[in-house]
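User: Continuing from earlier, I have the next pair ready.

Assistant: Great, send them over.

User: Here they are, in order.

Assistant: Folding the first of the pair now:
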Amino acid sequence: IGTDTTAPYSVIWNAAGVSDGSHSLTAKAYDAAENVGTSAPVTVTVTGGGGGETATFPSATDDGYVKAYSDGSGAEVGTNKYTLGLGLGRGIDSKINRAVLSFDTSALPDNAVITRAYLTVTRNSSYSNPWANPAGNQLLIDVQTGCLGPNCAIETADWSATATQLGVGQIAQWTSGTTDSTDLSSTGLTAINKTGQTQVKLRFSQFQTSTAYVIIAPETGATLTVEYTIP
């Protein structure tokens, strides 16, 4: 981390470019004949360091939303993606809307150690408060390694499809503009695909009992941010 040739010998370590965690340090002393002595290793723990990488992925054109009655019947792909956005919650037709975001995360290095990930979404409009109908409702994040179906294009089966990891994050109520989700849980991070597509399903934890929904922007209006280190 540094060299000092003048007594008293010391160095300053700038850990801003070092990843958080444990690091082993040793000191070496050289005499005029280039003989060297090496100290025993000392373990230090870095917090608030750097050394990580960040990648942000926009949702792809094959994102969308699908709606069905609460028992799963009558499923259909929503058709208002480009005029209104992606619906979440209960619409005026009494169907429950769920959105699927699609991210090409293949640019992540194969040996990346993912340390953090979260969604950013943009609010287009809303009706009533789907988080309060019923009380305590949550907008949950499911993460799929690869595609929910045979390909990543939105389809009716996505409404009931079970993702690789369920409920690994959530998005709290917000009133305008963009918002970030909670950080994905450790199990959610394991579902991020470093060799292909990662899909995210957004769904409310409980079915609304009356019309209450929020509409978010598709494609570049939704992003997945991934932080990682390289061993």
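And the other member of the pair:
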Amino acid sequence: MNEPELVLCDEPTGNLDQRTAEGILELLWKLKDEFASSFVLVTHDLALAARADRQLVLRDGRVADEVVNSA
């Protein structure tokens, strides 16, 4: 990657075993910190979503809730 400002991830850990999924997440968080990139991450994994700075919950294609997590 060439220092992207925005990275889109659609189910980046879907269908992966736990060890591989953790490796992918560590890499994503490292990239976020190293390049000060923003990530839009789509997931059905609530534990993963809880690690995000901000969450938008969608229902029927509309934003149903917004959660801002404290650092």
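Worth noting for the second one:
Residues 49 and 59 are 15 Å apart (CA to CA). DSSP finds two helices and four strands in the chain.
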